[in-house]
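new request in #modeling-help
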Amino acid sequence: MEIDPFIFRLSIFILSIFVGYYVVWSVTPSLHTPLMSVTNAISSVIIVGAIIAALAGSSESIFEISNIFGFLAIILAAVNIFGGFLVTQRMLQMYKKKKK
Amino acid sequence: MSANLSATFYLISGILFILALRGLSSPETSRQGNYFGIAGMLISIVVTFLSVGNFGSGFVYVLIFLVVGGSVGAFIAFRIPMTAMPELVAGFHSLVGLAAVFVAISAFLKPEAFNLGYVGNIKLASLIEMSLGAAIGAITFSGSIIAFLKLRGIMSGAPITFKGQHFLNLILGLIIIFLIYYLCISQTSNLFWSLVLLSFLVGVLLIIPIGGADMPVVISMLNSYSGWAAAGIGFTLENTALIITGALVGSSGAILSYIMCKGMNRSFFNVILGGWGATEQNIEGQSKEQKPVKNGNADDAAFLMKNASSVIIVPGYGMAVAQAQHALREMVDALKKNGVKVSYAIHPVAGRMPGHMNVLLAEANVPYDEVFELEEINNDFANCDVAYVIGANDVTNPVAKSDPQSPIYGMPVLDVEKSKSVLFVKRSLSPGYAGIDNDLFYRDNTLMLFADAKKMTEEIVKNL
């Protein structure tokens, strides 16, 4: 019997939750704010769906309602991607060790 | 690009995202981690373009929108002051939530573009996944907006409660489940729209009863939700990068919520249901009688600290409000010149988001190896000459250890009172967020410095 592809994705999902659990517990508490901003940035990989939605159909039909929602989602996700990674970078630059 | 090849690249993106979080285990590796994250994002976006393979006029528009959104994001990232980080993160969460809703709507309107079947005949599993993605996304969006407004001070931080609130939320939650069920049976678009609208409403109702100082929990919880929303969409799109990321972000937010709740010794549900605030009034009445406090000025404080051999600084939300972190660092520099050993003690729930104080201190060029967490430093108070409490209150209250009747009993607190003398910078004797009097004010070894945190610290610097 063939295995439903859904089960494969579910396996990836559940294993990733475990990976996330262990990785996040090892994050030092002083970096919890950058952790939030970077998780925010990477969750904007949802832009993948937005791009598919925006480019669906032929060139004449790119301004159908479903495409427009795609374009709007691209803007939102792009704000997040650039904003999230850059603000994280800005924060991380500030963490310095004692000058010896 | 073949489906198998692009799936492989999405997997690589997912792994890069894991490495991005892994990097945060120490400040040295964190910057490299961030580059991994950026690389993962770049791969995902390029692979998506190649696998869609539509480079017509639509592609140009996509690039334009990417640049527009990207510039707005970059502009915000460079301009935002570090004290505004909590509301920035809340704002960003709302965008992820809304993007998830939009992608779900798009998939519902044009399922064939995503290989999910046809309008009116969408695959059952996909329909469930996109409904969940849309519902969680909508809750994340409106909830984050409320959190943003509260953190920004546009909306009062006071909890908004009314009778039957929890019952209403329960009913709305059940209606959402029924809507998803009937949507799967009938595939009617009206049900889908009602689902989205109702979820927006639930997001608002969930966050309004939660007070300002509980925001660290709320913001972590919304972080988690944004991850689950992304995972829901990931299942719909059968996209590995999104599924992995969603799971990572979801569990990250959940762990942070847990750490924050533990920092207050409260259960997650107690926070979410807006626990504190209702029981406070009766306690406040008892402690109205005037107890003597010792009142000091900047001169006294400077004298005490100059002659100390070790000083521990306890910053709290008040430091962020007064923007006192730079003045504080100047004070510490002056103390160090006098040969005083200085360290910083951070309570897990100090500030309005996890790690809030650490970022502010880093911004003021405080080396991170002088900053310690509660467990690392709590034993040192007994051997320390002066504790300088600036903008913190409830997290130093010894009542949490001694009075089982107190609402904060059992909450881990910094043992500030064990140090030889305590300098407590505060504007007045008013109780903190928990609405209870701080026993520390009336102790013999406490000197109250009634002033704005920044002004007082600057005064002390002048006197050193």
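bot summary: Chain B touches chain A through 116 residues (CB under 8 Å).
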